[in-house]
Amino acid sequence: MLNADPLLPRPTLTNPSLLATALDRLSSGTDSVTEVWRVLTENYTVDLDAVAMLLPRQEPEPLWLAARD
């Protein structure tokens, strides 16, 4: 994780609509959700719980059993 410099102010995103707009813009320019998290936390001070609620969940692909004949 980035070692944030406390003397370097970063913009704060706390409003859910502004956060959703920022996520939409960032997700169009990145390849993965991990990259969105990285870019967002490096450039802004955000509520991580609010970001987690707005980003789609990444659940593992289910492993289907072979059908019995």
Describe the structure.
A two-stranded parallel sheet has the order 1-2. The protein is 46% helix and 6% strand.
SSE series: EHHEH
In spatial order, strands of the major sheet run 1-2
Tell me the number of strands: 2
Spatial gap, N to C terminus: 51 Å
* Computed structural class: mainly alpha
Give the structure's gist in a few sentences.
46% of the residues lie in helices and 6% in strands. With 69 residues, it is mostly helical.
Structural features:
single chain, 69 residues, mainly alpha
Secondary structure blueprint with pairings:
Layout: E1 12-13, H1 16-29, H2 33-43, E2 45-46, H3 48-54
Parallel strand pairs: 1-2
Helix pairs in contact: 1-2
